[in-house]
Amino acid sequence: GENVEQHPSTLSVQEGDSAVIKCTYSDSASNYFPWYKQELGKRPQLIIDIRSNVGEKKDQRIAVTLNKTAKHFSLHITETQPEDSAVYFCAAGYSTLTFGKGTMLLVSP
Amino acid sequence: GAVVSQHPSRVICKSGTSVKIECRSLDFQATTMFWYRQFPKKSLMLMATSNEGSKATYEQGVEKDKFLINHASLTLSTLTVTSAHPEDSSFYICSALIATSGTYEQYFGPGTRLTVT
Fold first, then answer.
1. What is the pLDDT of residues B15-46, one digit of tens each?
2. Rounded to the nearest 5°, which phi and psi values hold at A82?
3. What secondary structure letter does DSSP report for A26?
4. Which of A70, B62, B71, B113 is deepest in the core (most CB within 10 A)?
5. DSSP label of B31
6. What distances in angstroms separate CA B54 from CA A23, B36, B96, one per listed residue?
7. For B7-16, how does the pLDDT look when each residue is reduced to its tens digit (9 = 90+)?
8. Smallest CA–CA separation between A100 and chain B, in Å?
């Protein structure tokens, strides 16, 4: 089955800095790579996703890159704000998803 | 947008009793829903895939007789935790799958906090 590794487990940045979270996956058949943001006690919210036919996708301050050859994908958040503080999960798969262990992002004012 | 509801949001039950959790897709039909379990500060662990009109597919290590899943309609899946024990206390989250032109997206319910005393 699919195995997803996510790093780092925690990330602390100053407001305005950029944050990068990286994930690797093992199953070359996976072709869907979403990122979810989860605030404490709440549901995971889909923030951006990328599919295997695209190398990069951007939505305002958030971007995701995908390298299928190396089987890794990354989330980039620019100009971080305190409200970006949350746990971020990457996932890989097709209809069924395997999730990474999560990254707790803390943005300090 | 795709909205998924879950009920109840919190439940406290005594050891040995059963608890039913409902997951509903409010503005779309979902032939496939997923049930996850999440421990504090941990990731989402897939328990089972629920398919409308057929038996659920359970992940390895998940007891199907303990976690009963029923997907009786295109908008409702239920998870029943039978003979609950304190170790079953957890955050249970469902998601519904939207398939559009060969692509898939999962949208999550708000979760149910189960506490077994």
1. 999 999 999 999 888 889 999 999 888 889 99
2. -50, -35
3. -
4. B71
5. S
6. 34, 19, 16
7. 999 999 999 9
8. 7
